[in-house]
Specification:
By secondary structure, the chain is α/β, with parallel strands linked by helices. It contains 20 helices and 18 strands.
């Protein structure tokens, strides 16, 4: 198994109860309080301990004869290479990030070991089967990229609440509590150069003998008042959109009123004041209430005060964490105040936390259903029952009176650059782009290569690793700073580069195409071919009630996995269409056969797991945006 979290706990339990006796579990994560509502193998006393180790101990209590090897490590570590994966009959994934999934997919292809992928998002879930040479690999289909937003939209013209969240989280929070030496686009720009030159450093520095309440009111006026007035000096900006309204603290929360707020005869008020929650200090209890503008201003000032008075040692190094209650309160209040300025609907702390943390709240029963389906597919794989392999989708609402929608797997995609090794094309300005840009933005970020080796013909341009000699490493460092056209044999239009990753046994050819001009969002690089970084669908997803909620942006490396909508046209491009089964419970007639279950107990299963960052978003989900039963049924033999 890869992953011992929401799906992993259910999966390990189900494997144990089904009769599997030899299982390896890999997960580098430790248990957090937020895991306890669904990761049922863990208890409060386990917080801070290894998920893999605690899961092993919990299962051994009711299956002491089972052999479980727990690895508290990253599945991308060198020790978990192709030889390690070759010892298993099947690998089961319960991961939450695209990078680790790609890595495991490539190792399984290299080792010739079947892979069962899985994922849940709220009520939605999926289980997919990947067998080398028989079905598509995990990377045969494009995957959604994390949603990003132009800086000008965030700083000057927000139109959605998610824009306000990104502003509060990535700009304001970082400016006040993070590393101030880092560049920050917090202040709006104005065409009126005469009125927009306020010294940014002076504004955000605490003045000598300044009390924190005065500091908070000054910051409030600057970011919600002065900055918006500055933006209003660009008349062209507001010709086709509503102009924002500057907000000043004296108009919302007069000083005398602010001093009275929070004062109570209740004897417990002093205890609440000692907490690290502005909500508790001010007597606001329900996180699902939408605060009015006054309460948002109070929370904004109180969180600033608590950060500077109680957490001063952390100032200058803080980054937003969705599990940090005070940070979530600050971001919620700041985003709501900004939203009110721009005529955008305000949200509750509960909703804001979900957007800021890119969270779709996990449902334990969905994880249990998906874990059961994983085991069903595992038994088919171990019996070589290829005619009955199914990729099953768990739906929130019935389709054709079914909540479980089984379809046949695709054949391998002949255009896949991973399993079919089809070359990809890279459009780049060869006169300006450096080799390091190609490696970071294309090879690592888009192709998912961890330890790249780059060759031009027989010439080795770059290699990563810890065992490289010092003079060779210095030579590679010089190469990184060269533009493609500066190499002794220039890398220009039509040149083919070879990319390898020995750990993944990955090999790919990149056809370089020179291009002079790019738009801002392309970042000077356009990679085409079957590359799983193309976002599909809209930037909205539905919450439990069907209301559209925007997906928040994520920092690079988060590996955010959102819902992907696959259209009928895109299904056709990958070869054989998936066939709709009648009933998922009918796909394996012998799944409950005691004799056959007994024969499975000698098989070894690997469940591997990489680092989990989005605790409540267990995995990615691919949905079909039409009734699968309406498509032609073609069987994959």
């Amino acid at each position: 198994m890869v992953g011992a979290g929401g799906i992993g706990c259910e999966l390990l339990k189900t494997l144990a109860l089904t009769g599997f006796k030899d299982v390896h579990v890999i997960d580098m994560d430790t248990i957090e309080v937020s895991n306890l509502n669904r990761q049922f193998l863990f208890r409060k006393c386990h917080v801070g301990q290894s998920k893999a180790s605690v899961a092993r101990e919990a299962v051994l209590k009711f299956r002491p004869d089972m052999k479980i090897a727990a690895h508290h490590a990253n599945v991308k570590d060198p020790e978990f290479g192709v030889d390690f994966f070759k010892q298993f009959n099947v690998v089961l994934n319960g991961l939450d990030n695209l990078d680790a999934r790609r890595h495991v997919n490539r190792l399984c292809l290299a080792a010739g070991v079947p892979l069962v992928e899985s994922g849940t998002t709220g009520y939605l879930g999926q289980v997919t089967v990947h067998v080398k040479g028989e079905t598509e690999c995990y990377e045969c289909q494009t995957k959604p990229a994390p949603k990003t937003y132009p800086v000008c939209t965030i700083t000057s013209t927000p139109s959605k609440f998610v824009h306000c969240i990104v502003w509060a989280k990535e700009l304001l929070f970082a400016k006040l509590f993070g590393d101030r030496s880092q560049a920050n686009d917090l202040n709006a720009q104005s065409n009126d150069s005469g009125g927009s030159t306020k010294d940014d450093a002076d504004v955000f520095d605490v003045h000598e003998d300044e009390i924190y309440e005065d500091y908070g009111r000054r910051i409030f006026d600057h970011v919600f008042g002065y900055n918006i007035e500055t933006a209003l000096r660009n008349p062209e900006t507001w010709k086709k959109r509503g102009a924002p309204t500057p907000k000043y603290i004296k108009d919302i929360l007069p000083l005398a009123e602010n001093e009275e707020n929070g004062i109570s005869n209740n004897s417990s008020i002093e205890e609440r004041e000692q907490s690290l929650s502005a909500m508790a200090s001010l007597g606001l209890k329900n996180p699902q209430d939408i605060w009015n503008i006054v309460d948002n201003a109070r929370i904004f000032l109180k969180t600033l005060q608590i950060f500077f008075e109680r957490r001063k040692q952390e100032m200058g190094s803080l980054t937003f964490d969705k599990d940090d209650q005070l940070a979530v309160e600050f971001v919620t209040a700041a985003a709501n105040i900004r939203a009110s300025s721009f005529g955008i609907q305000m949200h509750s702390l509960f909703e804001a936390k979900g957007i800021a943390g890119n969270i779709v709240h996990a449902i334990a029963t969905t994880n249990a259903i998906i874990a059961g389906l994983i085991v069903l597919e595992t038994t088919k794989l171990l019996r070589n029952d290829s005619k009955n392999y199914r990729m099953t989708y768990c739906l929130q609402h019935p389709s054709r009176k079914m909540l479980l929608m089984p379809v046949e797997p695709f054949e391998p995609n002949r255009s896949c650059y991973v399993c079919s090794r089809t070359p990809v094309s890279l459009e780049v300005n060869t006169q300006q782009a450096k080799l390091k840009d190609i490696i970071e933005k294309a090879v690592k970020a888009k192709l998912g290569v961890n330890s790249p080796l780059i060759m031009h013909g027989s010439t080795l341009l770059f290699e990563s690793g810890d065992d490289i000699e010092e003079d060779v490493a210095a030579h590679y460092a010089q190469n990184l700073e060269k533009t493609l056209a500066e190499f002794p044999v220039p890398i220009t239009n039509g040149v083919i580069l070879t990319v390898e990753d020995y750990q993944q046994e990955f090999l790919c050819s990149i056809n370089i195409k020179h291009r002079d001009d790019f738009d801002e969002e392309s970042d000077g690089i356009v990679l085409s071919g079957e590359v799983p970084t193309v976002a599909s669908g809209s930037d909205d997803h539905a919450d439990e009630s069907g209301e559209k909620l925007p997906i928040a942006t994520t920092e690079a490396g988060d590996g955010s996995d959102d819902v992907e909508i696959i259209t009928a046209d895109s299904l056709v491009t990958s070869g054989t269409k998936r066939k709709l089964g009648v009933d998922i419970t009918c796909n394996d007639d012998n799944s409950g056969n005691t004799k056959q279950n007994t024969t499975l107990t000698t098989n070894t299963v690997a469940i591997a797991g990489g680092k989990r960052k989005l605790d409540d978003n267990e995995n990615d989900v691919i949905l079909i945006d039409e009734d699968p039963g309406n498509r032609k049924k073609t069987r994959l033999e």
